[in-house]
Amino acid sequence: MLSNNQQTNQKTTEKKNPYEAFEFLEYRYFLILRACFVLAIQMQAVIVGWQMYELSGKNTLMLGMIGLAEAIPSIGIALYAGYLADMHSRKRIIQIAISVLFVATLILTLLSFDGATFSTNTKIYAIFVIIFITGLARGFVSPANFGLMSQVVSEKALPNAISWNSTVWEGSTVLGPIVAGLVYGYLGVEIAYIMQTILLFGAVIAITLIKNRPASAQRNTNESIFTKLSAGLKFVFSTPVLLGAISLDLFAVLFGGAVALLPAFASDVLNVGAVGLGFLRASSGVGAVVTAVVLAYYPIKRNAGQILLGCVAGFGFCIIGFGLSTNFYLSMFFLFMSGILDSVSVIIRSNIAQIYTPSDMKGRVSAVNSMFIASSNEIGAFESGLVAHYFMLVPSVIFGGSMTLLVVLIALIFAKDLRKLKFD
To answer: Are 417 and 307 in contact (CB under 8 A)?
Structure first.
Protein backbone atom coordinates (compact mmCIF):
# COMPACT_ATOMS: atom_id res chain seq x y z
CA MET A 1 0.00 0.00 0.00
CA LEU A 2 1.04 3.58 -0.64
CA SER A 3 1.65 5.92 2.29
CA ASN A 4 -0.41 9.07 2.64
CA ASN A 5 2.47 11.17 1.30
CA GLN A 6 2.90 8.86 -1.68
CA GLN A 7 -0.82 8.98 -2.45
CA THR A 8 -0.78 12.76 -2.23
CA ASN A 9 2.24 12.99 -4.56
CA GLN A 10 0.59 10.60 -7.01
CA LYS A 11 -2.60 12.65 -7.10
CA THR A 12 -0.60 15.87 -7.54
CA THR A 13 1.31 14.34 -10.44
CA GLU A 14 -1.94 13.28 -12.10
CA LYS A 15 -3.49 16.69 -11.65
CA LYS A 16 -0.47 18.45 -13.13
CA ASN A 17 -0.11 16.27 -16.23
CA PRO A 18 0.20 18.99 -18.91
CA TYR A 19 -0.42 16.56 -21.81
CA GLU A 20 -3.53 14.80 -20.54
CA ALA A 21 -5.72 15.85 -23.47
CA PHE A 22 -3.25 14.43 -26.02
CA GLU A 23 -4.09 10.91 -24.85
CA PHE A 24 -7.25 11.21 -26.99
CA LEU A 25 -6.52 10.57 -30.67
CA GLU A 26 -9.48 12.56 -31.91
CA TYR A 27 -8.38 15.54 -29.87
CA ARG A 28 -5.12 15.50 -31.84
CA TYR A 29 -7.12 15.56 -35.07
CA PHE A 30 -9.17 18.38 -33.57
CA LEU A 31 -6.01 20.42 -32.95
CA ILE A 32 -4.85 19.85 -36.53
CA LEU A 33 -8.25 21.08 -37.70
CA ARG A 34 -7.97 24.07 -35.39
CA ALA A 35 -4.44 24.94 -36.56
CA CYS A 36 -5.23 24.71 -40.28
CA PHE A 37 -8.45 26.67 -39.91
CA VAL A 38 -7.01 29.49 -37.80
CA LEU A 39 -3.86 29.75 -39.94
CA ALA A 40 -6.05 30.13 -43.02
CA ILE A 41 -8.31 32.75 -41.41
CA GLN A 42 -5.34 34.74 -40.08
CA MET A 43 -3.69 34.67 -43.50
CA GLN A 44 -6.91 35.87 -45.09
CA ALA A 45 -7.11 38.84 -42.69
CA VAL A 46 -3.66 40.05 -43.74
CA ILE A 47 -4.10 39.33 -47.44
CA VAL A 48 -7.55 40.87 -47.79
CA GLY A 49 -6.65 43.84 -45.57
CA TRP A 50 -3.57 44.79 -47.56
CA GLN A 51 -5.19 44.04 -50.92
CA MET A 52 -8.23 46.17 -50.09
CA TYR A 53 -6.04 49.01 -48.79
CA GLU A 54 -4.17 49.04 -52.11
CA LEU A 55 -7.26 48.63 -54.33
CA SER A 56 -9.18 51.40 -52.51
CA GLY A 57 -6.36 53.93 -52.72
CA LYS A 58 -5.45 53.70 -49.01
CA ASN A 59 -8.97 54.32 -47.70
CA THR A 60 -9.17 53.40 -43.99
CA LEU A 61 -12.97 53.37 -44.12
CA MET A 62 -12.80 50.41 -46.52
CA LEU A 63 -10.81 48.48 -43.91
CA GLY A 64 -13.65 49.02 -41.47
CA MET A 65 -16.25 48.06 -44.06
CA ILE A 66 -14.51 44.73 -44.61
CA GLY A 67 -14.98 43.98 -40.89
CA LEU A 68 -18.64 44.96 -41.09
CA ALA A 69 -19.20 42.76 -44.16
CA GLU A 70 -17.98 39.76 -42.17
CA ALA A 71 -19.78 40.65 -38.93
CA ILE A 72 -23.29 41.11 -40.33
CA PRO A 73 -23.79 37.50 -41.53
CA SER A 74 -21.93 36.07 -38.54
CA ILE A 75 -24.21 37.86 -36.06
CA GLY A 76 -27.32 37.24 -38.12
CA ILE A 77 -26.83 33.48 -38.28
CA ALA A 78 -25.35 32.95 -34.80
CA LEU A 79 -28.44 31.82 -32.87
CA TYR A 80 -29.56 29.47 -35.61
CA ALA A 81 -26.02 28.10 -35.97
CA GLY A 82 -25.91 27.41 -32.23
CA TYR A 83 -29.27 25.65 -32.42
CA LEU A 84 -27.99 23.44 -35.26
CA ALA A 85 -24.80 22.66 -33.32
CA ASP A 86 -26.88 21.25 -30.43
CA MET A 87 -29.51 19.49 -32.53
CA HIS A 88 -27.35 18.00 -35.31
CA SER A 89 -23.91 16.52 -35.90
CA ARG A 90 -21.25 19.12 -35.12
CA LYS A 91 -18.79 17.32 -37.37
CA ARG A 92 -21.09 17.63 -40.41
CA ILE A 93 -21.67 21.32 -39.76
CA ILE A 94 -17.93 22.02 -39.62
CA GLN A 95 -17.30 19.95 -42.76
CA ILE A 96 -19.85 21.90 -44.79
CA ALA A 97 -18.80 25.31 -43.47
CA ILE A 98 -15.09 24.79 -44.11
CA SER A 99 -15.85 23.45 -47.58
CA VAL A 100 -17.66 26.72 -48.31
CA LEU A 101 -14.62 28.66 -47.07
CA PHE A 102 -12.42 26.52 -49.33
CA VAL A 103 -14.47 27.41 -52.42
CA ALA A 104 -14.62 31.10 -51.44
CA THR A 105 -10.83 31.24 -51.15
CA LEU A 106 -10.47 29.62 -54.56
CA ILE A 107 -12.58 32.43 -56.02
CA LEU A 108 -10.43 35.07 -54.28
CA THR A 109 -7.37 33.40 -55.78
CA LEU A 110 -8.78 33.51 -59.32
CA LEU A 111 -9.78 37.18 -58.91
CA SER A 112 -6.27 38.13 -57.86
CA PHE A 113 -4.22 36.69 -60.72
CA ASP A 114 -2.45 39.29 -62.84
CA GLY A 115 -3.99 37.83 -65.97
CA ALA A 116 -7.53 38.23 -64.62
CA THR A 117 -9.39 40.86 -66.66
CA PHE A 118 -11.36 42.44 -63.84
CA SER A 119 -11.58 46.14 -63.08
CA THR A 120 -10.56 47.49 -59.67
CA ASN A 121 -14.18 48.19 -58.71
CA THR A 122 -15.22 44.68 -59.73
CA LYS A 123 -12.51 43.20 -57.53
CA ILE A 124 -13.55 45.36 -54.58
CA TYR A 125 -17.24 44.42 -54.89
CA ALA A 126 -16.36 40.74 -55.36
CA ILE A 127 -14.15 40.75 -52.26
CA PHE A 128 -17.01 42.21 -50.20
CA VAL A 129 -19.41 39.51 -51.43
CA ILE A 130 -16.94 36.71 -50.71
CA ILE A 131 -16.10 38.10 -47.26
CA PHE A 132 -19.84 38.18 -46.53
CA ILE A 133 -20.02 34.48 -47.46
CA THR A 134 -16.98 33.59 -45.35
CA GLY A 135 -18.54 35.45 -42.41
CA LEU A 136 -21.64 33.31 -42.85
CA ALA A 137 -19.59 30.10 -42.91
CA ARG A 138 -17.52 31.12 -39.88
CA GLY A 139 -20.75 31.79 -38.01
CA PHE A 140 -21.56 28.07 -38.28
CA VAL A 141 -18.03 26.88 -37.44
CA SER A 142 -17.67 28.64 -34.10
CA PRO A 143 -20.52 27.05 -32.05
CA ALA A 144 -20.00 23.62 -33.62
CA ASN A 145 -16.27 23.76 -32.90
CA PHE A 146 -16.87 24.85 -29.30
CA GLY A 147 -19.18 21.90 -28.65
CA LEU A 148 -17.08 19.37 -30.56
CA MET A 149 -14.05 19.88 -28.33
CA SER A 150 -15.95 18.68 -25.25
CA GLN A 151 -16.98 15.54 -27.19
CA VAL A 152 -13.46 14.36 -28.11
CA VAL A 153 -11.97 14.44 -24.59
CA SER A 154 -13.14 13.34 -21.16
CA GLU A 155 -14.64 15.85 -18.74
CA LYS A 156 -11.57 15.49 -16.53
CA ALA A 157 -9.22 16.40 -19.40
CA LEU A 158 -11.35 19.32 -20.62
CA PRO A 159 -9.49 22.13 -18.78
CA ASN A 160 -6.20 20.85 -20.19
CA ALA A 161 -7.79 20.58 -23.64
CA ILE A 162 -8.94 24.22 -23.36
CA SER A 163 -5.40 25.37 -22.56
CA TRP A 164 -3.82 23.51 -25.49
CA ASN A 165 -6.62 24.61 -27.78
CA SER A 166 -5.82 28.21 -26.84
CA THR A 167 -2.11 27.52 -27.37
CA VAL A 168 -2.70 26.19 -30.88
CA TRP A 169 -5.01 29.09 -31.63
CA GLU A 170 -2.48 31.65 -30.43
CA GLY A 171 0.39 29.89 -32.22
CA SER A 172 -1.59 29.97 -35.44
CA THR A 173 -2.28 33.67 -34.98
CA VAL A 174 1.49 34.16 -34.79
CA LEU A 175 2.46 32.07 -37.79
CA GLY A 176 -0.48 32.96 -40.07
CA PRO A 177 0.18 36.73 -40.36
CA ILE A 178 3.96 36.25 -40.67
CA VAL A 179 3.55 33.73 -43.50
CA ALA A 180 0.91 35.88 -45.19
CA GLY A 181 3.04 39.03 -44.96
CA LEU A 182 6.21 37.36 -46.23
CA VAL A 183 4.49 35.49 -49.05
CA TYR A 184 2.42 38.52 -50.10
CA GLY A 185 5.46 40.80 -49.96
CA TYR A 186 7.88 38.54 -51.85
CA LEU A 187 5.74 36.15 -53.94
CA GLY A 188 2.51 38.05 -54.51
CA VAL A 189 -1.13 37.89 -53.55
CA GLU A 190 -1.88 34.88 -55.76
CA ILE A 191 0.58 32.56 -53.98
CA ALA A 192 -0.65 33.80 -50.60
CA TYR A 193 -4.22 32.83 -51.47
CA ILE A 194 -3.07 29.44 -52.80
CA MET A 195 -1.39 28.69 -49.47
CA GLN A 196 -4.58 29.62 -47.63
CA THR A 197 -6.55 27.27 -49.89
CA ILE A 198 -4.17 24.39 -49.08
CA LEU A 199 -4.62 24.99 -45.36
CA LEU A 200 -8.40 24.89 -45.65
CA PHE A 201 -8.13 21.62 -47.55
CA GLY A 202 -6.05 20.28 -44.64
CA ALA A 203 -8.81 21.34 -42.24
CA VAL A 204 -11.36 19.40 -44.30
CA ILE A 205 -9.19 16.27 -44.08
CA ALA A 206 -8.74 16.65 -40.30
CA ILE A 207 -12.46 16.98 -39.54
CA THR A 208 -13.14 13.95 -41.74
CA LEU A 209 -10.92 11.82 -39.45
CA ILE A 210 -13.08 12.64 -36.41
CA LYS A 211 -15.98 10.27 -35.76
CA ASN A 212 -19.50 11.46 -36.31
CA ARG A 213 -21.50 11.86 -33.10
CA PRO A 214 -25.23 12.25 -32.47
CA ALA A 215 -26.75 15.53 -31.38
CA SER A 216 -26.14 16.52 -27.75
CA ALA A 217 -29.58 17.98 -27.09
CA GLN A 218 -32.85 16.06 -27.08
CA ARG A 219 -35.25 17.13 -29.81
CA ASN A 220 -38.29 18.03 -27.74
CA THR A 221 -41.08 18.43 -30.26
CA ASN A 222 -43.23 20.29 -27.72
CA GLU A 223 -40.82 23.22 -27.79
CA SER A 224 -41.01 25.74 -30.61
CA ILE A 225 -37.87 26.53 -32.59
CA PHE A 226 -37.97 30.06 -31.16
CA THR A 227 -37.82 28.61 -27.62
CA LYS A 228 -34.83 26.47 -28.58
CA LEU A 229 -33.07 29.35 -30.32
CA SER A 230 -33.57 31.74 -27.40
CA ALA A 231 -32.47 29.19 -24.77
CA GLY A 232 -28.83 30.19 -25.16
CA LEU A 233 -29.61 33.86 -24.61
CA LYS A 234 -31.72 33.08 -21.53
CA PHE A 235 -28.96 30.90 -20.08
CA VAL A 236 -26.27 33.55 -20.55
CA PHE A 237 -28.40 36.34 -19.08
CA SER A 238 -29.29 34.16 -16.09
CA THR A 239 -25.63 33.31 -15.34
CA PRO A 240 -24.02 36.48 -13.93
CA VAL A 241 -20.39 35.30 -14.17
CA LEU A 242 -20.76 34.25 -17.79
CA LEU A 243 -22.67 37.41 -18.71
CA GLY A 244 -20.05 39.58 -17.01
CA ALA A 245 -17.15 37.90 -18.85
CA ILE A 246 -18.88 38.16 -22.24
CA SER A 247 -19.89 41.79 -21.70
CA LEU A 248 -16.41 42.76 -20.60
CA ASP A 249 -14.83 41.27 -23.70
CA LEU A 250 -17.53 42.64 -25.99
CA PHE A 251 -16.86 46.27 -25.15
CA ALA A 252 -13.11 45.87 -24.68
CA VAL A 253 -12.70 44.35 -28.16
CA LEU A 254 -15.25 46.70 -29.68
CA PHE A 255 -13.30 49.79 -28.66
CA GLY A 256 -9.78 48.47 -28.08
CA GLY A 257 -9.12 46.58 -31.32
CA ALA A 258 -6.49 48.28 -33.49
CA VAL A 259 -5.90 45.23 -35.69
CA ALA A 260 -8.10 46.44 -38.55
CA LEU A 261 -5.99 49.58 -38.89
CA LEU A 262 -2.64 47.77 -39.02
CA PRO A 263 -2.38 48.07 -42.83
CA ALA A 264 -2.63 51.86 -42.43
CA PHE A 265 -0.04 51.92 -39.63
CA ALA A 266 2.30 49.66 -41.60
CA SER A 267 1.99 51.82 -44.70
CA ASP A 268 1.70 55.40 -43.45
CA VAL A 269 3.03 55.56 -39.87
CA LEU A 270 5.76 52.91 -39.65
CA ASN A 271 6.57 52.58 -43.39
CA VAL A 272 7.23 48.81 -43.27
CA GLY A 273 5.02 47.51 -46.09
CA ALA A 274 3.27 44.15 -46.38
CA VAL A 275 6.10 42.21 -44.75
CA GLY A 276 6.07 44.53 -41.74
CA LEU A 277 2.31 44.20 -41.58
CA GLY A 278 2.68 40.44 -41.19
CA PHE A 279 5.06 40.89 -38.25
CA LEU A 280 2.82 43.49 -36.63
CA ARG A 281 -0.18 41.18 -36.82
CA ALA A 282 1.92 38.33 -35.45
CA SER A 283 3.40 40.28 -32.52
CA SER A 284 0.37 39.95 -30.28
CA GLY A 285 0.18 36.27 -31.15
CA VAL A 286 3.79 35.70 -30.07
CA GLY A 287 3.01 37.02 -26.60
CA ALA A 288 -0.25 35.09 -26.52
CA VAL A 289 1.22 31.71 -27.45
CA VAL A 290 3.98 31.96 -24.85
CA THR A 291 1.39 32.81 -22.21
CA ALA A 292 -0.93 30.00 -23.31
CA VAL A 293 1.87 27.42 -23.00
CA VAL A 294 2.76 28.69 -19.51
CA LEU A 295 -0.88 28.52 -18.42
CA ALA A 296 -1.15 24.95 -19.72
CA TYR A 297 1.46 24.04 -17.09
CA TYR A 298 0.36 26.50 -14.41
CA PRO A 299 -3.41 27.07 -14.77
CA ILE A 300 -5.06 30.02 -13.06
CA LYS A 301 -7.20 29.02 -10.09
CA ARG A 302 -7.24 31.72 -7.45
CA ASN A 303 -8.47 35.28 -8.04
CA ALA A 304 -9.38 34.48 -11.65
CA GLY A 305 -11.91 37.32 -11.85
CA GLN A 306 -9.48 39.95 -10.58
CA ILE A 307 -6.79 38.69 -12.96
CA LEU A 308 -9.25 38.90 -15.85
CA LEU A 309 -10.13 42.52 -15.09
CA GLY A 310 -6.47 43.45 -14.62
CA CYS A 311 -5.49 41.89 -17.94
CA VAL A 312 -8.23 43.71 -19.87
CA ALA A 313 -7.11 47.01 -18.30
CA GLY A 314 -3.49 46.28 -19.26
CA PHE A 315 -4.68 45.51 -22.79
CA GLY A 316 -6.23 48.98 -22.99
CA PHE A 317 -2.95 50.63 -21.92
CA CYS A 318 -1.06 48.64 -24.56
CA ILE A 319 -3.44 49.81 -27.29
CA ILE A 320 -2.90 53.43 -26.24
CA GLY A 321 0.88 52.87 -26.30
CA PHE A 322 0.68 51.35 -29.77
CA GLY A 323 -1.32 54.31 -31.04
CA LEU A 324 1.30 56.76 -29.76
CA SER A 325 4.31 54.84 -31.08
CA THR A 326 6.11 55.79 -34.29
CA ASN A 327 8.83 53.16 -33.93
CA PHE A 328 8.30 49.76 -35.57
CA TYR A 329 9.94 47.75 -32.79
CA LEU A 330 8.22 49.67 -30.01
CA SER A 331 4.89 49.12 -31.78
CA MET A 332 5.67 45.40 -31.96
CA PHE A 333 6.44 45.43 -28.22
CA PHE A 334 3.08 47.00 -27.33
CA LEU A 335 1.28 44.46 -29.52
CA PHE A 336 3.34 41.67 -27.94
CA MET A 337 2.30 42.77 -24.45
CA SER A 338 -1.33 43.10 -25.54
CA GLY A 339 -1.14 39.49 -26.72
CA ILE A 340 0.13 38.31 -23.33
CA LEU A 341 -2.72 40.03 -21.51
CA ASP A 342 -5.36 39.02 -24.01
CA SER A 343 -4.27 35.36 -23.86
CA VAL A 344 -4.81 35.24 -20.10
CA SER A 345 -8.28 36.74 -20.41
CA VAL A 346 -9.21 34.46 -23.33
CA ILE A 347 -8.30 31.31 -21.38
CA ILE A 348 -10.18 32.49 -18.29
CA ARG A 349 -13.28 33.26 -20.36
CA SER A 350 -13.03 29.90 -22.16
CA ASN A 351 -12.92 28.09 -18.83
CA ILE A 352 -15.93 30.05 -17.60
CA ALA A 353 -17.92 29.14 -20.71
CA GLN A 354 -16.97 25.45 -20.71
CA ILE A 355 -17.41 24.94 -16.95
CA TYR A 356 -20.71 26.82 -16.53
CA THR A 357 -22.42 25.52 -19.70
CA PRO A 358 -24.13 22.09 -19.84
CA SER A 359 -23.17 19.88 -22.79
CA ASP A 360 -26.55 20.03 -24.48
CA MET A 361 -26.41 23.85 -24.63
CA LYS A 362 -22.79 24.43 -25.61
CA GLY A 363 -23.66 25.19 -29.22
CA ARG A 364 -26.27 27.81 -28.40
CA VAL A 365 -24.22 29.42 -25.63
CA SER A 366 -21.21 29.50 -27.94
CA ALA A 367 -23.43 31.16 -30.54
CA VAL A 368 -24.34 33.89 -28.07
CA ASN A 369 -20.65 34.18 -27.24
CA SER A 370 -19.90 34.57 -30.96
CA MET A 371 -22.55 37.23 -31.34
CA PHE A 372 -21.17 39.33 -28.51
CA ILE A 373 -17.45 38.57 -28.77
CA ALA A 374 -16.22 37.03 -32.01
CA SER A 375 -18.28 39.42 -34.12
CA SER A 376 -17.27 42.35 -31.94
CA ASN A 377 -13.86 42.02 -33.58
CA GLU A 378 -15.40 42.81 -36.95
CA ILE A 379 -17.73 45.50 -35.61
CA GLY A 380 -14.76 46.91 -33.71
CA ALA A 381 -12.88 46.94 -37.01
CA PHE A 382 -15.71 48.99 -38.54
CA GLU A 383 -15.70 51.37 -35.55
CA SER A 384 -11.93 51.81 -35.82
CA GLY A 385 -12.07 52.38 -39.58
CA LEU A 386 -14.94 54.86 -39.25
CA VAL A 387 -13.28 56.89 -36.48
CA ALA A 388 -9.93 56.83 -38.30
CA HIS A 389 -11.58 58.02 -41.51
CA TYR A 390 -13.22 61.05 -39.89
CA PHE A 391 -10.93 61.81 -36.92
CA MET A 392 -7.48 60.64 -38.13
CA LEU A 393 -5.66 57.38 -37.56
CA VAL A 394 -3.74 57.77 -34.29
CA PRO A 395 -6.51 59.52 -32.26
CA SER A 396 -8.92 56.71 -33.16
CA VAL A 397 -6.64 54.08 -31.58
CA ILE A 398 -6.00 56.17 -28.46
CA PHE A 399 -9.75 56.71 -28.09
CA GLY A 400 -10.34 52.97 -28.34
CA GLY A 401 -7.78 52.12 -25.66
CA SER A 402 -9.22 54.76 -23.34
CA MET A 403 -12.73 53.37 -23.76
CA THR A 404 -11.41 49.90 -22.85
CA LEU A 405 -10.16 51.29 -19.54
CA LEU A 406 -13.56 52.86 -18.91
CA VAL A 407 -15.24 49.48 -19.56
CA VAL A 408 -13.00 47.81 -16.95
CA LEU A 409 -13.85 50.50 -14.41
CA ILE A 410 -17.58 49.92 -14.97
CA ALA A 411 -17.08 46.14 -14.62
CA LEU A 412 -15.22 46.64 -11.33
CA ILE A 413 -18.21 48.53 -9.96
CA PHE A 414 -21.11 46.42 -11.27
CA ALA A 415 -19.80 42.89 -12.06
CA LYS A 416 -19.32 41.69 -8.48
CA ASP A 417 -19.73 37.98 -9.28
CA LEU A 418 -17.06 38.19 -11.95
CA ARG A 419 -14.72 40.08 -9.65
CA LYS A 420 -14.98 37.32 -7.02
CA LEU A 421 -14.54 34.43 -9.51
CA LYS A 422 -12.19 31.60 -8.48
CA PHE A 423 -11.47 28.23 -10.14
CA ASP A 424 -10.13 26.45 -7.04
So the answer is: no
